[in-house]
Batch of 4 targets.
Target 1
Amino acid sequence: MSSQVNEPVDHAMGSQIRKHEGEGEGEARAVPEASPLATVEGIDVSGHQRNVDWPAHWNQGKRFAFVKATEGTTYENPYFAQQYNGSYDIGMIRGAYHFALPDVSSGAAQANFFVDNGGGWSPDGKTLPGALDMEYNPYGDTCYGHSPNSMTAWIKDFSDTYFHRTGRYPVIYTSTSWWDRCARGDFSSTSPLWIARYAGSVGALPYNWGFHTFWQYSSTPIDQNAFNGGYAQLQAIARG
């Protein structure tokens, strides 16, 4: 079990992937090679960014944002309202994310905690389905004590609960290395893939996903993401 029960924690999306897989000094900091007509640029933030200067990011061309809402079943981002509402108010399409701790409670319990604390979805055309952040355990065992089969069952429990609460399946954020080691389940027919890879291309994708929807390609100077499609396609995902 993790130490999360007794003290608030805040692990940013990708923090454990970078710790275990590294982030290159060269190509990872460059904007990926792609036609500007085929991608939309965005960022993700957590409590570590505190009050975010949304006009500055808008002026840099960022058009979507994911904001950390929760972790496990006890942590809530104290800056969530400023970040989630601020990105919306400046004109971005926004969504929330949950940092999973699969060893402290069930997938259903964490999905409910997420939805109850900012992770819901509404068909307003400006809100993306919530994202489930699946990555290395910050506290110990890489796979949180789960086998690939039990981890897949945990993710399905979260995913199905989120769907029953919101009418949408969550986006799944992960790295190929972690997923192939710890999960290996097939969610390609329900959940959009948000791949973490800090390089000039997305590389191999996790099991059975034929394409990625979002790509976190750098953490400098803030987590940088690209949507794999045009702005109208991003709007379509938001509308459901």
Target 2
Amino acid sequence: MKFASIRLVTGDPASVDTLVSFYTRLTGISATRPVPDFAELRFAGLVLAISTERMVQQFNAGAARAAANRSAILEFEVDDVDALYQRLGDASMDTAMPPTTMPWGNRSLLLRDPDGNVVNVFSRPATQEAAHAL
């Protein structure tokens, strides 16, 4: 079995545009838009799909509701969380938690996308061996 994608369900085609803009800005990955109600951002090994609730009603038996997530966190690993935070600027991003060092060493930034989904962007600490190699 191969884990293929995560899909975010949003309100309408304009909401798809808003989410695509957010995730493109965050990741630098452009989306494909085969139809106005659907988009995909293709990462190595995984796809982030975005569709309207109308598509879910039509093709997925209404199994998901737009902007209703309160239990999942999308996570992206980057080399340097602080550099990304500076590049994004905090004025147009809904920052739930600025870059913070976690007890296990990860440096983590929590954002909310335009639909309120929690996004954790983190970097792993350098290992002791890597630190000594520098």
Target 3
Amino acid sequence: MSDSPLVNVILGRLREAGYRSLAAPFRVATVEFEFTAALRGSDRRALDLVLVVDTTTGEFGDRDSARVRQRVEALSRALDLTGSRYVITVILAGASLGTDIEALAETCRVLHVDGLQLDGNGALADGTARNQLEDRIRVLLPLTLPPPLVATEDGSGPAIDQLVRALPAGVDNALLAVVTGASQQGEQAVTDAMASVLDAVLLIEEKQ
């Protein structure tokens, strides 16, 4: 665990989102790499590799922009050699670094987290501070959809509800339920759901 409260709140939020800490140092292609912290995603974010760099009090040369860039680029090359499809994200926790970090953005995704209000225990001070943190690492967090609006008598309301009401009466209700349920998880989920239903129908036809 880092001694930096800022790093710890970042790590805590990422773990809530399903990221898992890697042992330090971690090894890629027989080469050891060490950063303030490293995490990898799970499920749909299983290819995310997140490196946290404590630019204020960090060890491992994390306050030296040139050294940070060299290590990240070396890690990127090692991943390429192993054929890995990991996508690297570097989170700069604390003061901004120099032009080397700007160049680093050509190699990986770079996020910057600083200026969060923490309480005396090193936790986020309030909901505003949490929202600020989430805004800065939003690309790493799962998408959350707002609660659906209550349909109104004039036919307005959520787009999916309007679509369902506009469909003809003969639509397959089972297929409709699967598709509308999957729609909350994105386009790929809808495609996968329809494919599963069609596969099941074809399997039944083949058995007949």
Target 4
Amino acid sequence: MLAPKTDCLFIPLLGTPASIGLARTLAGQKLNKWDCSGILDDALLVVAELVTNAAKATPLREIRFQLSRDAEGVIIAVWDSSSRLPEPKAVVELGLEDLDLAEESYDRNGGWGLPLVQALSTCCGYTRDPRGGKWVWARLAARHAP
């Protein structure tokens, strides 16, 4: 079991697509340092989804990314200044016929990130920041490398 640590990662980012890759890279390095490679793939997907949502909610504005750990696992949290709260799509079984594969609609088939975050995490949610905006977070139980 992990002991509480103070070596968390906290970094301000700009709400751009480039921030997604940077957050994933930094998170991957920190998770490897913490010997949490057992959750690496899941954690990096959660990082990408949360940072993507924050960047879309506040394009070209500051967002904040935090990765920390405690005895229960790893916490991924992203702050943005938008007051709009996350709304996950209802989980339904989809087939290819449900997707609009026309070239002009290709990028409009998204919105499934939060259900993925819910499925991969032990718990997740959001917390309004009293100074404005919100933190969207997810906790993953740490599994160490064999």
